[in-house]
Amino acid sequence: QVQLVESGGGLVQAGGSLRLSCAASGIIFSITRMVWYRQAPGKQRELIAGINSGGSPNYADSVKGRFTISRDNAKNTVYLQMNSLKPEDTAVYYCNAVDLRSGRPYNTWGQGTQVTVSS
Question: Among residues 78, 88, 82, which one has the least CA distance to residue 17?
Answer without folding.
Answer: 82
